[in-house]
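Quick check before the chapter quiz. The format below is the same one you will see on the exam, so make sure you can read both the input and the output lines.
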Amino acid sequence: MAGAAGAERLRLISTDEETSFDVALAESPGSDRSGVLILPDVRGLYPFYVELAERFAQAGHPAIAMDYFGRTALDEERGEDFAHMPHVERTTVDQIQADALAARRALVDHTGERPVYAVGFCFGGMQAFLAATSAELDFDGVVGFYGALDGSKRGFPSPPDVVGEMRCPVLGLFGGADQAISREQVAAFDQAMDDAGVEHEVVVYPDAPHSFFDRRYEDHAEASADAWRRTLRFIEG
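Here is the expected output.
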């Protein structure tokens, strides 16, 4: 979209007032379309997600990508050698949602009141599914790209176990060749949302692996392009 700006790095104070953390905000001047909060994978505010915020803005959707690690790795560079797992292991749902709320408010403060959707990837996809249960975050919908469905290993709730608390529509995008998330898990999640009456769509790309969109886009261009189209259609309501 003409006029869409490059992303601006900002430092926000979490709504729990315990930390500051970084975000990348990409505005789309003149657009009244929905906004997007990007929940990255385990790398946090990695350059891919800054560029993705800009891509959403170019499509007319102002976007903000957030970091998870303000409490433990605030100023560390997020290159390929960033050792993310020690920081991931110290996160909690409450902390992530407190930071997400601050990011959501910043998006609206900078771009105006509008519907806001969460779009998450891998670890962030799970966080998007969990955020669908939050009345305070009040998302108009959430998109999970290959969002983890078993949170028990890291002490998180598992998305299939909280479908009864989901308050907004859900779009789940999964790879059929994902070695981390089985087709059986995806089918069970889909069925659980059916049973709970959650408005949702689940799409499985048969040959796509985990991270097909964020790490292996060029190798799986057809699936990635379709996932992008579906995401834009979903957030346009």
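If your answer matched, good. The first strand starts at residue 8 and ends at 13.
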